[in-house]
Design brief:
By secondary structure, the protein is α+β, with helices and mostly antiparallel strands. The protein has one domain. The protein contains four helices and two strands. Strands 1-2 form a two-stranded antiparallel ribbon. β1 and β2 form a beta hairpin.
């Protein structure tokens, strides 16, 4: 599950240069629903993450590891599984164990992450 491109036309620009040249746009990116022109809309991102999660978890394997960036994991918890927001930033190398039975998904263990 790859990260969302919410930066649009600023993609590839250093964060420092983007802040200097477009401070109002960079500030608006704090709102996860905001997308800069040319970026992936949050609704499309959510749909992509939902489809990927469903495809991955409907496989024949009993145990699956998903390694991803924070954006897709936050989207999965917030908008796909409706578990809510993380209390703080999702920690680097956080490990979250989920269990899925048919359509039900529950949190088994979280190390490096806490829900608000």
């Amino acid at each position: 599950m790859r990260e969302r491109n919410s930066y649009g036309f600023l993609t590839g620009t250093s964060k420092e240069k983007a802040r200097a040249e477009h401070p109002e746009l960079v500030n608006k990116l704090k709102d996860y629903l905001f997308t800069i022109k040319g970026g992936e809309k949050y609704e499309d991102f959510t749909s992509r993450i939902r489809n990927a999660f469903n495809e991955i978890t409907s496989s024949k394997y009993g145990k699956i590891a998903i390694v991803s960036h924070g954006g897709p994991i936050c989207c999965l918890f917030r908008s796909v599984l409706n578990f809510g927001e993380f209390a703080d930033d999702l920690g680097d190398c956080a490990i979250i164990e989920l269990e899925k039975n048919d359509l039900n998904v529950k949190i088994v263990n979280m190390d490096g992450a806490t829900l608000a």
